[in-house]
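At this stage, I put together one protein's amino acid sequence and its backbone structure tokens, which the following lines show:
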Amino acid sequence: ASRLNAPRWLSKVRELFPHSTAETLQKQALERYGLDELLTDPAVLEQATPSLDLVRTLLSCRSLLPPAAMSTVRRIIRQVVRELEQKLAQKVRNSIMGVRLRGQHGGRPSLANLDWPTTLRRNLKHFNQEHDTLVLERLFFLQRQQRKLRWDIIVLVDQSGSMLDSVIHSAVLAAIFTSLQTLRTRLVLFDTSVVDVSEQIGDPVEVLLGVQLGGGTDIALAMQYAAGRVVNPRRTLLVLISDFYEGGDSSALLKTTLRLHESGVKLLGLAALDERAEPDYDHKMAQQLANRGMEIGAMTPDQLADWVGRTIH
């Protein structure tokens, strides 16, 4: 049972303890309970079932992984990332790339584009009375209007241990965003320093393997970095994903937020970006940011895509 629960437990340690303490606890647990082979033996890893829990564990214990295991680690992370992309990609594209044009048919055949009222009305003549069944001989699909004007989106992601789920989903979403012509996407990771990983954005696996979990948090520094990359404020979205526990200059953070809002940048602060959207965060700081023009919430990836779509439309 301990082996089965190990991935979840090991990843949780990063959320509950400071960086140095978490690393020590993880190492001791792996040695004491014989779990080290789960991470350090490539043969055992090869047999592990890829899952989000396992990816969390591999990322949170990355410093303990031997070089010989890294190819297997990459394969596991890539498989889970691919599954997330397949789950999210079409929904994100539909939300952001356009809206269905009412009354105009001939769109791409998909359940999302199916015009049910027209399809039912046009097929009434094919109703089979004997079997009490409506035969749909022809389906009608709505066209989508493509948005041609590009927007810039800057995604700032807090690398705190408690934000690991949000980091994973952010990397996957950013890769989908950057594949859309509508958006120019910049992805920035931060703790007490800022790392712009926009050049790697198309490969979320490498982005995730570069994440440095734990340490302090300087949101003000990240926001100032983002402010310096804004070219057209009224066509820029800035998404800050953080628990809002600021270890830097709170006054500078609030001033930068207000300045960005007044310039026309659309601001969204997310305390969580994952399938549960159940965050633990600094409510006081979140309220102060909201008072300066930042929309605050916790969202699933689908909900973030909807927000982006509504905002740019």
Summary: The radius of gyration is 23 Å. Confidence is low (pLDDT under 50) at residues 99-103. The chain has three domains: 2-79, 100-144, 151-312. Residues 70-97 form the longest helix (28 residues).
